[in-house]
Write a structure and sequence with these properties.
It is built from five helices and no strands. With 120 residues, the chain is mainly α. It has one domain: 23S rRNA-intervening sequence (de novo design (two linked rop proteins)), CATH 1.20.1440.60.
């Protein structure tokens, strides 16, 4: 992406996929036990990590950003945190294998898209 090209982050396939993940995370958390949905449970850091992925991607598309790769690296960091928390939720029985597999596939696709964007 050239900085001279007008481009809004909402047009980015990468950002759209990150938003799909955040929405998916929010959806699956509804079935978590009440204690996990309260402050101090797994839901707060999980949702925060998922939202930070799309936020860093959006920030990387701002025309004034000199090094968008740094923000994409941060998005990748938050994606790793999201993946780890999804694994933890599955290991604790809060996610079915099917739900975990779907979320894991989204994370893998996102990681590939982030890598592509960083090396474009």
């Amino acid at each position: 992406m050239s900085l001279s090209t007008p481009y809004h982050f909402t047009e980015s396939r990468l950002w759209q996929k990150a938003m799909d993940m955040a929405i998916g995370v929010n959806h699956v958390m509804r079935s978590f036990p009440e204690k996990e949905r309260q402050t101090g449970g797994i839901c707060c850091p999980l949702l925060e990590a998922a939202i930070c992925v799309s936020a860093r991607i959006a920030e990387s598309h701002q025309p004034f950003m000199r090094n968008s790769n740094e923000l994409l690296q941060q998005a990748n960091f938050h994606l790793t945190a999201t993946e780890q928390l999804i694994v933890l939720a599955q290991m604790q029985g809060y996610l079915s294998y099917t739900e975990w597999d779907r979320m894991h596939d989204i994370c893998l696709e996102l990681r590939g898209l982030i890598f592509q964007e960083m090396h474009a």
